[in-house]
């Protein structure tokens, strides 16, 4: 799977009566429809630290008690992937001000990551560590690995400091994701801190819904608190 070929459907594996029980058990073990509200899978892998130019390791323990966005992408040396990584890097200082770490991951090796960063012009000045999921197990544990092709879908998972996934986005490879998910992080941090909930399109300074104090009054009367014009503004 790469950015330069037409999108193809994933073919389900063929099963027979003799192996259906084995396949079913494997699917239960490795596949999940969502990571949301689940704990971050434990992992440890080699990585390339583009800021220092050295190889290193990264693990789930590194992100304990932190906000972190784990961002899977299909492969180095493709077309859409470097634009996503570069966009996240351009907003890296904003992520840092919000206390958010960013970890891009693909199944490529740390050696590939190093060469990718050194040769791709749009990645000049990259500050991010890049995880090398060479065993494909981390991608599998997050539910984004395409087994037949040995690469990951574009999966982005936001974890809170308790290590719980609060948001995810998974899509195919031909269209890059929007770095404006910064707004989503701001909303989650506000909701976590205040106990209030954030309506569609919320950003700092806009009205929230104080269900932590006015739940009974608000039930069936959300329109008394906020209008569609405010939501879309």
- Total DSSP helices: 8
Spatial separation of the terminal alpha carbons: 39 Å
Calculate Rg over CA atoms: 20 Å
The rough form would be described as elongated
Going by helix content, strand content and strand pairing, the class is alpha+beta
Tell how many strands the DSSP assignment holds: 9
The residue ranges in which pLDDT falls below 50 over 5 or more consecutive positions are 1-7, 9-13, 15-32
Following the backbone from N to C, one meets helices and strands in this order, namely HEEEHHEHEHEEEEHHH
* Fraction of residues in H or I helices: 25-40%
Q: What is the strand arrangement across the widest sheet?
A: 2-1-5-4-3-8-9
Overall average residue pLDDT: 87
Largest beta-sheet characterization: 7 strands, mixed
β-sheet strand percentage: 15-25%
Please provide a written account of the structure:
- The structure is a single chain.
- Helix content is 30%, strand content 20%.
- The protein contains eight helices and nine strands.
- The strands form two sheets. The protein has a seven-stranded mixed β-sheet with strand order 2-1-5-4-3-8-9. Strands 6-7 form a two-stranded antiparallel ribbon.
- It is elongated, with a radius of gyration of 20 Å.
- The N terminus is likely disordered.
């Amino acid at each position: 799977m790469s950015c330069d070929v037409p999108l193809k459907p994933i073919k389900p594996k063929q099963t027979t009566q003799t192996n259906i029980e084995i396949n079913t058990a494997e699917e239960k073990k490795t596949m999940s429809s969502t990571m949301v509200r689940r704990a971050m899978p434990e992992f440890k892998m080699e990585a390339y630290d583009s800021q220092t130019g050295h190889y290193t390791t990264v693990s789930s323990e590194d992100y304990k008690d932190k906000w972190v966005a784990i961002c899977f992408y299909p492969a180095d040396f493709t077309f859409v992937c470097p634009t996503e990584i570069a966009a996240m890097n351009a907003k890296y200082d904003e992520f840092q001000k919000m206390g958010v770490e960013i970890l891009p991951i693909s199944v490529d090796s740390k050696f590939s990551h190093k060469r990718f960063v050194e040769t791709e012009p749009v990645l000049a000045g990259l500050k991010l560590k890049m995880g090398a999921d060479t065993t494909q197990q981390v991608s599998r544990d997050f539910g984004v690995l395409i087994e037949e092709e040995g690469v990951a879908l574009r999966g982005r998972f936001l974890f809170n400091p308790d290590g719980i996934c609060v948001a995810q986005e998974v899509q195919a490879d031909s269209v890059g994701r929007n770095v404006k998910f910064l707004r989503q992080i701001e909303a989650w941090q506000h909701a976590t801190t205040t106990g209030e909930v954030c309506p569609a399109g919320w950003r700092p300074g806009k009205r929230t819904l104080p269900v932590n104090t006015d739940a009974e009054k608000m039930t069936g009367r959300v329109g008394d608190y906020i209008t569609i014009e405010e939501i879309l503004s």
